[in-house]
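To close the section, here is one more complete example, presented without commentary so you can practise reading it yourself. The ligand is adenosine-5'-diphosphate.
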Amino acid sequence: MFLMGAVKKPHSFFTYLSLSYLAVYAVCALLLYLITAHVISESARAFDRDDIRSDSLEYAEILRGNASGSWLAEEVALEHLPASTIFAIRLLGTDGNVVYSASQPTNFAFPGGWNSRKAPASNLVPKDNWREIYLPEYKRHLQLRSTRLPDGRVLQVAKSTARENTQEGILLRTSLAFFLLACLFTLGNGLWMMAITLRPIKRVTADMSRIIETGTCEAGDFPVSSRISELNTLGRYFDLMVQKNATLIKAMKDTLDNVAHDFRTPLARIRSAAEFALNAREPPLSHDALLGMLAGIIEDCDNAKLQLQNLMDIRAMESGFLNLDRQRFDLVKTVAEIADLYAVLAEDKNIALNIDVPEGQLSVDGDPLRLSQALANLIDNAVKYTPRDGNIQITLERAHGEALLTIGDTGIGIPEEDHALIGQRLFRSRNARSEKGLGLGMSIVKAIVDAHGGSLTFTSAPGSGSRFFVRLPSC
Ligand code: ADP
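Output:
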């Protein structure tokens, strides 16, 4: 059952990038705003308290010699205060009665019964005391200082300047402007990031969809270039992969053609031999002629079987399964036998095939059939790619505890740029394509030598021939 509701519509990279930046900016801006607002209001309130402290000291000094408190009315100059300042002062007698009070605004309702004639007992503080009272109707904080004078009277001074609100307003406006700028910057940054990151990705995506739609495996015309190194690498590897796939597909097509050709010829020969034998009644074919034809058919079948075996071997090697029937055997004898098999072929092209093997035995621990197959492939190539009247030299020797087999020829050689590709499945050099072949032999040789713990190397140059070196651990 499909859960349709669970499938979410994907959004573009730009949306995610911009939204995540915005979220980060918003959280940071809010935190910064809260911290700054706190610092501002704390410092504004501290200013108010400083004012109150100096006012209280001044008024207390005046009241020291004025028992009735009448001088206070002369000293308190409310008209000099800015209109935005809330200010209140009162003097409580020793009995708790309000002796003097004044405020700006005049009708100011002080929380906690400021206007009552008799102050509540809670306000009659015995010592120097601070209170902070929030005034909801003014949306401000009021600082109140109660000072007990030496004669027992209590002086209360309260003040709240507009400093806190003004500064908070400035902060709010600045923060909003900053946030708007940050949003614009985020959008700009998102667009820029999108341009530099998405361009190569779009190029790769376009290539992919073209490959899927047309089935032609080719990279785009221009290389992926981005200021982001990871995307450059991605583009480079994508192009390489596409090129490799294109080479592989072409090689597979060539291989199919070759396989078809390689099978069509022996099949046609088998069919015409059988047809000829069936139709040849007058005069009837001799027993020897029939045997010769059957031998030809068997040989063609063997060749076709060998080609199939090569293909299957490659499959097995690619899956990492190459079964070796290991045993100790004499490589000198094997080399001589295989070289002997190719003597006739070499002779047909007037190629001198020389063998140089050590005296006695050179034992190795391996699969004689597989190693013979590898050796046969190497000598077969040497004969195939050496023009008439050339030279092939096969040498087997002991070298540093190893068996070193060298197959040198004076053939067409391998172009320098192809050296790294020799041994790759289906690879054939351009200069070798006039000869029949599937491009499988060298990969089989390499896999067999590798499976025996040995190594395959070569030196080669076009026109001056090739030398293949097989090193195997000897016993
Ligand atoms: P095939 O011979 O069927 O093409 P191989 O796998 O045996 O396939 O060889 C791969 C390629 O290596 C050949 O197509 C040829 O280009 C190159 N090569 C191998 N051996 C030789 C050689 N002795 N001289 C020149 N080129 C060679």
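Once you have examined the tokens, check your reading against these statements. The pocket of adenosine-5'-diphosphate is lined by residues 377, 381-382, 385, 409, 411-414, 422, 427-429, 432, 437-443, 466 (CB under 6 Å). Helices lie at 13-64, 71-75, 163-214, 229-279, 287-318, 331-348, 368-384, 441-451.
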